[in-house]
Amino acid sequence: MLVEEYNSSVDLYSDNVYRFILKNIKDEEKARDIVQDTYEKLWINVDNVNFKKVKSYIFTTAYHTMIDLIRREKKQVDFEYINTEKYSHNEQYSDLNELLHKAIEKLPEDQHSVVLLRDYEGYSYQEISEITGLSESQVKVYIYRARMVLKNYIGSIEAVV
Fold first, then answer.
1. Is the entire prediction scored with pTM above 0.70?
2. Are residues 101 and 150 in the same domain?
3. How many whole angstroms separate alpha carbon 84 and alpha carbon 115?
4. Is residue 32 part of a domain?
5. What range defines the domain where residue 124 resides?
């Protein structure tokens, strides 16, 4: 297709395509954007489109562009209608590291030590047992109890993050 034919197709069909899209989506700005995208796609493929079939190409491309837009918008959420109370609260705290350190400081000394050795330093239960002089089963009990205290102190991760 020649440049003159392209310009002619804009003159001949742009208003019709605009009305067609506007009837379907009822939004003037989006309809203009779709028409512009359609003609951009035509310009990109100008060498592959026959002028005799340009009307069909334009309407088909506009239709598919409109469908793509509608599908994208379905996936997006309109934030004006979201109940923010459901997804937020006033007690949110963003410094998880500081909160975790405060919680660990509140642990009894034996639980504090084993949790640090296990979760921060990465020692095995047996190694912690050797370091602290506690039995391996006692180390497991202390770690379990400490984690329960931490979980109750911090609360749910959703409340913290």
1. no
2. yes
3. 37
4. yes
5. 96-160
